[in-house]
Specification:
Elements: H1 3-30, H2 38-53, H3 65-78, H4 89-96, H5 100-112, E1 116-119, E2 123-126, E3 131-134, H6 142-148, E4 153-164, H7 167-173, E5 180-190, E6 193-203, H8 216-219, H9 222-228, E7 234-245, H10 248-254, E8 261-271, E9 276-285, E10 289-292
Length: 304
């Protein structure tokens, strides 16, 4: 074989090999996020098979089958992206061994709960409504605000510890370096969806025995405990909100991929006497959260 022909064939082989590697990498990097294509639809159905498809509904239980199916679907929905299509009625009947009416009853309840939307001629799709934090509710607690909007909040206290204050925390709370602080880390849910991770720092000397109130923080707001039990009346807060990539630890708790956009908020809460009582960091899911901010013209009496 002539050398120039051999070199051409070799070059083509390397080129084809490179292209194959490129598309393999592209495929692997996109399988997590692509949801709109036919391929993604097939993958979402496979996810259903892996996560819940082999789950056998217990017909002998007192809980109706459609309620059991609804619970199984919720597990899958919580791991799915917004807009992901649900498996068809036929697929669900086959996977779970139930009737079409059972499937329809389960999906209709999910529609009523606002986590699934139905599009005529297209099917049913995951619907994750954004929660809205309103600045007018700034001095109220998270649970009360969510319930006012007809949503059901839930709190998990991940940890409550006593630690030495880090430099950036000391600066925000206006306390000496390495002073003891109470660190409270919480995960907040709305209608069963994880929406925000909160990490609060409070001066330990201002809140004796706060570290023993971990159970209270499940049903009560931290601010109500601060005001009612420790008699510090909150007056104002300085808050900064910015969009950042989700850190790995917070991403895992929020059920999103590391690096996904989150709204990162930092706030310093003060009393009427300008005492800093809480510094809080918050990571909100970018696809599930928004902030409503009230704007008004500054009343400057000197400008006439």
């Amino acid at each position: 074989m002539p050398p120039n022909v051999y070199c051409s064939i070799t070059s083509i082989c390397y080129f084809v090999k490179y292209i194959l590697y490129f598309y393999i990498e592209l495929y692997l990097s996109n399988t997590y996020t692509v949801t709109s294509s036919k391929y993604a639809k097939r993958e979402s159905n496979n996810l259903m098979n892996r996560e819940t498809g082999n789950r056998i509904l217990e017909k002998s239980k007192d809980i109706p089958l459609y309620k059991q199916l609804k619970a199984a679907l919720m597990v899958w929905i919580q791991e799915s992206e917004n807009g992901t299509s649900l498996p068809t009625e036929e697929e669900l009947c086959l996977q779970f061994g139930v009737s079409r009416q059972t499937v329809r009853n389960a999906v209709l309840e999910l529609v009523d709960d606002g986590v699934v939307t139905r599009r005529p001629g297209q099917g049913s799709f995951v619907r994750k409504t954004k929660i809205s934090r309103d600045t007018r509710w700034a001095l109220d607690d998270f649970n009360r605000e969510m319930r006012f909007h007809g949503l059901e909040p839930e709190t998990i206290v991940l940890s409550l510890t006593l630690e030495k204050s880090l430099d950036f925390v000391s600066r925000q709370l206006s306390i000496p370096k390495l002073e003891e602080v109470v660190v409270i880390r919480r995960q907040r849910f709305v209608n069963g969806w994880p929406v925000v991770i909160q990490q609060s720092y409070l001066p330990s000397r201002l809140f004796p025995n706060l570290a023993s109130k971990k159970k209270d923080l499940i049903d009560r707001s931290l601010h109500s405990i601060i005001e009612q039990e420790y008699e510090y009346e909150l007056q104002n807060a300085e808050r900064t909100v910015e969009a950042i990539p989700a850190p790995s630890r917070e991403a895992e708790l929020l059920k999103i991929a590391p690096g996904s956009p989150v709204l990162y908020s930092t706030s310093v809460w003060k009393t009427y006497n300008n005492v800093c009582v809480e510094f809080v960091l918050e990571w909100y899911r970018g696809d599930r959260s928004q902030f409503n901010i009230q704007l008004s013209r500054k009343n400057d009496s000197s400008a006439h």
